[in-house]
Structures are given as C-alpha cells and as structure tokens.
C-alpha cells in the first residue's frame, strides 16, 4: 500500500512538473511564417500580456513552441510600441513576409494599418518614417499579397456601418496604397456570416489571399469575434479585385466542425511534408471569450475538375493545440 502511494505521488509530481513546463498559447489573429524547417508564430497578445507589440515563438513540429534562441529579450519581442513604430494601443493582426533581403510586418495599431521592416526575421521591426499606411480613415486587418506579375495588393478592413473587406494596389517602396484602385470586395450576403448569437453590424475580416492556377482565393472570417459562430470561409475570383464568388460549402472552420467556439481569424501556411494548414484562434472557454487560444488545423485541398477551382476543407479530427515549452 505504501509503495502504491509513493508511486501515485511520483506520478502526480511528474504531471505537475510537465504542466509547469508546458502551457497553451494565447495568441489571437494568428499567423505563422515559415523559413527553412522552422515555423514562427505571432499574433495579437492578450490584455496585459507583456509590452504592447508582437512577439515570436518558434517550432519544428507545430506542437511545441519556444522563444527563439536568437531573440534579444526573454519574451521574443519583434516589434515594440514606441521603438520607431506607429501606434499607442490595439496592436493586432500581424503578417510577416519577405522581399529580397528585407523582412516586413504589416499590422494594426490605433485602428490603422501599418508597415514596418527589418533585416532580421526576429526583428526589431521598425519604421523609417513613423506613420500608418493610409490615414484617410480607420482600417484594420491588413494582408499584403504579391501577385505573380510582381504587383502588391493590400487586403484590409474598412469601417462603413460595419466591417468590410477592401483591396487596393500597394507600393512596397513607399508603403502606401493607390487610392484610385481601392475597392470593396463583397457585402454580407450569407446566413453563416450573420448569426443571431451576438448582434452586431456586418463584420467580415481577417483576410488571407493565395493564387492557385490563375484563380485568387480570399479566406476571411465573419460575425463579431465575440460571437460563438465566428467562423472562416472563402471566395474565389479571376482577378485580385474580384468579382468574388463565395464557396457554397462555407464556412469551412466553425464550432460545428472543429468543436470549439469563436474559431477564426488566422492564416494559411505549408507545414511538414508540404501539408497545408490554417492557424486560428478560439474563445477561451464556452462562457468566456478572452484571452483567446491558438489552434492549428490541417487543410484539405481538392481540385474540382468541372468547376475549375479548388475546394477547401479541414481535418477537424487533427486539430493541434500548440503549447509553449518553458524549459
């Protein structure tokens, strides 16, 4: 009996130690950047979770994450409020991309989209001239897409009695849009985009754009983020400006599919073995929205020969719950 008790205490102690060494990741509006065989995760941090800005975590397997060894601070900060950067609050929705020998981050702060750069992937990301991309009105959730002809486009959200996705041609050298090309992508048209579980103005946000076989696929989230039905769908077009045709099987990520509330606002990336993944956030618990938790799910891409487009779905039984390894 004594030996069984000792074994029980040992096992309990081991579980407590493991729990102390590993904890869930609480990033919202998530994105993952891939370089070589390493994955770098960043997103909107929870309230009070360290200094305003963005921090990096790295992983080799998408499951266990840690602060990069090359980081210059223990929190892995890559962009910090006040360090040659625009914004005083509301640092949201980052995206990392690279052009030649320069890394860029686009993000939201003070309800404005912002572009900063660095010669190092792990930062610090700063601005030569501190300011937003386009200060003509409130705009958030930026995603910069490079087309096969070398042109850049800024997909983002603008406020007009609701949150609507827009696109405009973007000049990477000046960090500005061409306002003459600004266009709304589409309106709220589908029942899944406006469920009654949380009343709000129309909201479509969190864009990601990919081009496959001369078709443009715009992934987005709909409903208010506090709605348990916050979810992800996509639309297809022959041009960066549309017109966009929404997938009839939307949403492809929703609580009825992945089993957790508030599932949305993330990004696509290629994981191990060139498997396509989507990273996103969920509500903290069934009765609480924040701080939101991070998730990663494999994506299935299937060619529809008749329609001439890809159809996307997710492997809901293979959702990854990423954790930070403390030691």
From TrEMBL:
Coiled-coil spans are: none
User: Which InterPro entries does its entry note?
Assistant: Glyco_hydro_43, Glyco_hydro_beta-prop_sf, Glycosyl_Hydrlase_43_Enz
Q: Which domain of life is it from?
A: Bacteria
Pfam assignment, any one: Glyco_hydro_43
Kindly state which keywords UniProt assigns to this record, in alphabetical order.
Carbohydrate metabolism, Glycosidase, Hydrolase, Polysaccharide degradation, Signal, Xylan degradation
Range of residues in the leader sequence: 1-19
Which SUPFAM superfamilies does the entry mention?
A: Arabinanase/levansucrase/invertase
Which family is this sequence assigned to? Answer: Belongs to the glycosyl hydrolase 43 family.
Task: Please state what the protein is called.
Answer: Family 43 glycosylhydrolase
Per the UniProt record, the source organism is Dyadobacter sandarakinus
